[in-house]
Amino acid sequence: MSAEDNFHHVRDFGYFEVPTFLTSKEHYSDIGSVPWHVKAVLHLPKDAGVDAVNEALVGKVMIPQPFAFSAAHPGFLITKFMVLQVVVLVVCLIIFRGLASRVRGGRVVRGRFWNFWEMMALAIRDDVVRPTIGAGHHDHGHHDHGHDGDHGHNHGHGGHAVATGGHPADRYLPFIWSCFFYVLLCNLLGAVPSLGSATGNINVTAALALSAFLASFLYGVKAMGVGGFFGNLIPDTGLSGAGAVAMSCLMFPIEGLGFIIKHAILALRLFGNLMGGHTALGVILGFIGQAAKGNVALWGVVTLGSVLGQLGVGILELLVAVLQAYVFSFLATIFIAGAVHKH
User: Fold this and answer.
1) I want to staple 335 with a disulfide (CB 3.0 to 4.6 A). Which of 65, 201, 216, 268 is the partner?
2) Cα-based angle 23, 25, 30 (whole degrees, multiple of 5)
3) Over the stretch 122-176, which tens digit does the pLDDT of each residue have?
4) Would you say 161 and 154 are in contact if contact means Cβ atoms under 8 Å apart?
5) SS (H, E, C) the chain
6) 65, 39 Cβ separation under 8 angstroms
7) Dihedral, CA of residue 118, residue 121, residue 122 and residue 126, to nearest 10
8) Cα(first)–Cα(last) distance of the chain, in Å?
9) What is the reported pTM?
């Protein structure tokens, strides 16, 4: 990787960076034993010698590449962010399968660990999804919001209330919960040394935004039908006759484009905040290296200030990690609400 790449520390690679003393300086004895994908992952030229490869490998733990195949027929390379996303998936499965087994049958959850996750899940349900989406035309007169200690396990309301856990908006909870906890855990991994935030990569946030876009579209079509969904994109102008038709033809592409843009902003917002935070940390710590070129006294002052600044920004990053997960899930909920209710 070029020395001029100022964003090296937040990019996705096929390795994890660790302190140099944890790795060996001798990896390969000859260039013929170096797999093709090692040079590709390290961004080395094809004519790089074995010494250049070994030097580049210092301080790095390479990710196994079972699908790399050969240089003549290259395959699929696994990257750090892919591994971290699988880790997040496994952690979510372990936590929430365990939590689900403890609330099954309306039982009270016990234990601080499980209470913590239950509290966060209920906060998203009671403070985001139910108030934002509301009962709408699905509730048929039932307005149980599950705030009476039953945690959504109401079984006497009939219709949608039974199927969705006590409130019509609960049918959208699995998707919103998945968004929130997936983004949250991806963000928090960035605070662990040698790891990183997959949500600091535009490809990951774009995939999340596309999921939210498809969810809004599919939920809207299911609630209102295809014609009703697209008709709902056109606001009521108060006109009639030819004027109404002309205005609708003008407004439809504008509103349709707006529907796409506001989901794209989900990707840019999350990416920008995570990338910006990690970049700020890198810049602050970079002052130490720059000050090392001067006298020792200046280097000591800058080092102390940079470390303290990094700690302060690091604490702020933890807040940002939670806040951005909340913002993403909240905006996704707003978009779903707009898709399933008549304007």
Assistant:
1) 216
2) 125
3) 999 999 999 999 876 544 434 444 444 444 444 433 333 333 457 889 999 999 9
4) yes
5) CCCCCCCHHHCCCCEEECCHHHCCCCCCCCHHHCCHHHHHHHCCCCCCCHHHHHHHHCCEEECCCCCCECCCCECCCCCHHHHHHHHHHHHHHHHHHHHHHHHHHHCCCCCHHHHHHHHHHHHHHHHHHHHHHCCHHHCCCCCCCCCCCCCCCCCCCCHHHHHHCCCHHHHHHHHHHHHHHHHHHHHHHCCCCCCCCHHHCHHHHHHHHHHHHHHHHHHHHHHHHHHHHHHHCCCCCCCCCHHHHHHHHHHHHHHHHHHHHHHHHHHHHHHHHHHHHHHHHHHHHHHHHHHCCCCHHHHHHHHHHHHHHHHHHHHHHHHHHHHHHHHHHHHHHHHHHHHHCCC
6) no
7) 180
8) 51
9) 0.81
Show the tokens assigned to 185: 């855990």
